[in-house]
Amino acid sequence: MAIDKGYRFGIGFDEAFTQGLVMVGEVSPDNEYQSREDRAAGRPTRQRIDEVTGKRQWKAMVTDPAETRAKRASFEITLLADVQPVPTTSEVLPGMRPIELEGLTAEPKVAGQGEFKYQSYVFRATGFRAVANGSGTKTARSSSAAESPKAA
Fold it and tell me: Which candidate, 23, 20, 22, 128, places its Cα nearest to that of 83?
């Protein structure tokens, strides 16, 4: 049985991020590349549209406290929505807030270069949900969830 390239697996937030996520900065539009010629001609920037859902793409930088490798702890997550999603939590430090995502999907991809390639994922979500306990951290999960790493 083959799975098509680009397939998105639905995954629960608590399974993917056992200790929650911390958003660094703000949500911003995921704009298409604009060349120097386009800027000089005064052409407007266009926001990317997800080809599967037809929704606008937004991006946010997040940090996973459960990740042990520093280079893999922070990454961009794509939010798919017609209007800009607004986090449901307040900042705990300037520019940092615990978040939980709803409608989370994971798409496998190969990351790294040369002989240092590794399995990674592109995470997409439809929006934010209220953090269950206010701190964004989760209690220890079952052993089956703990054994399924995000990036091997």
Answer: 128
Cα separation values, 50 from 2, 54, 83, 125, Å: 23, 5, 13, 12
Q: How many C-beta neighbours within 10 Å does residue 50 have?
A: 15
* SS3 of residue 24 by DSSP: strand
Query: What is the distance between the alpha carbons of residues 74 and 93, in angstroms, rounded to a whole number?
Result: 17
Question: pTM score, two decimals?
Answer: 0.79
pLDDT per residue over 93-129, tens digit each?
A: 999 999 999 999 999 999 889 999 989 999 999 999 9
Contact partners, residue 94, CB within 8 Å, separation at least 6:
none
Strand-pair category, 105-111 with 96-102: unpaired
**SS3 for 110?**
strand
